[in-house]
Design a protein that fits this description.
By secondary structure, the protein is of the alpha/beta class. It has nine helices and eight strands. 37% of the residues lie in helices and 20% in strands. The longest helix has 21 residues.
Length: 275
């Protein structure tokens, strides 16, 4: 009888989520109007789309930064994250070679700031804001979480982020930034643009996910493994790493989405229980 009750409970919960209606708003500028007017490329590029539950309160929000090596790609709301009871925000940002670092990093921070300042107007919970993305997008989310200066501009402490979930992001300086510096992609560097440069004890929960180390792009698994080790040596207990064996850099996103959703659900429950 107990098993039947549990099955019925989850069936009803799934049905309720399936019946939830969602709204979508597109091409919202996350910089203020005066900033956009100064730069036509910024005005056209620095926008976001928000997909959120209708007539629901206290929902979690996933900020999603697209990949593309910081040189290409478009904002997106991944289908795997839709209809799950959460808001999902797809962010567009400026791209190299139209701009160089740190312009696109500054865009990522500005977008996150917009979410912190605005999500409650949509019914979301400001304490349940998660940052995620794939490849270059994961790099952007990670660098603004690790280098506190980008969000400090908006009076936001990275500890206010509920969780960072990185899909195959770079932990060293991104290869496009190295190219801008005249350094080849197979020459690793760690400088002010490397998330690993800012290893410390106090971070929000961080979940690093990569593809198979033998199938990944360049040394992506090893970068994240070293990031994990150095964080632990700095007494950080909020970081984990998953290697999705059998999946390459591009294909790893699909099996990683359920891990992201599970992380959002688990952390959200913990935060709400403390209220």
């Amino acid at each position: 009888m107990k098993k039947l009750f549990i099955l019925l409970f989850f069936a009803n919960a799934s049905f309720a989520i399936a019946q939830q209606k969602y709204n979508t708003e597109n091409d919202i500028h996350y910089y203020d109007e005066s900033t956009n007017k100064k730069d036509s490329y910024m005005d056209s590029q620095c926008t976001l789309d928000i997909y959120y539950p209708n007539n629901k309160k206290d929902f979690a929000t996933i900020i999603w930064f697209h990949g593309g090596g910081l040189t290409k790609g478009k904002k997106q709301i991944p289908k795997a994250l839709m209809d799950k009871g959460y808001a999902v925000i797809g962010v567009e940002y400026r791209l190299s070679p139209n701009v160089n670092a740190p312009a696109y990093i500054e865009d990522a921070a500005a977008a996150v700031s917009w979410v912190f300042n605005t999500i409650e107007k949509y019914g979301g919970n400001k304490k349940l804001i998660f940052v995620s993305g794939h490849s270059a997008g994961a790099y952007l989310g990670t660098i603004i979480t690790m280098d506190k200066s980008y969000l400090a501009k908006y009076s936001i402490d990275p500890m206010e982020i509920a969780g960072l979930i990185s899909f195959s992001g770079q932990a060293i300086t991104h290869f496009t930034i190295r190219k801008e510096q005249g350094i080849k992609s197979t020459q690793p560097t760690i400088d002010m643009y490397a998330p690993i440069y800012y290893v410390r004890e106090d971070t929000p929960p961080i979940l690093l996910i990569t593809g198979d180390r033998e199938m990944e792009l360049l040394g992506r698994y090893e970068e994240n493994a070293y990031f994990l080790r150095m964080m632990k040596l700095n007494r950080n207990k909020n970081i984990r790493l998953y290697e999705l064996q059998g999946f390459n850099h591009s294909d790893m996103a699909e099996p990683a989405y359920p891990l992201l959703l599970n992380e959002v659900e688990t952390i959200s429950k913990k935060i709400l229980e403390k209220k």
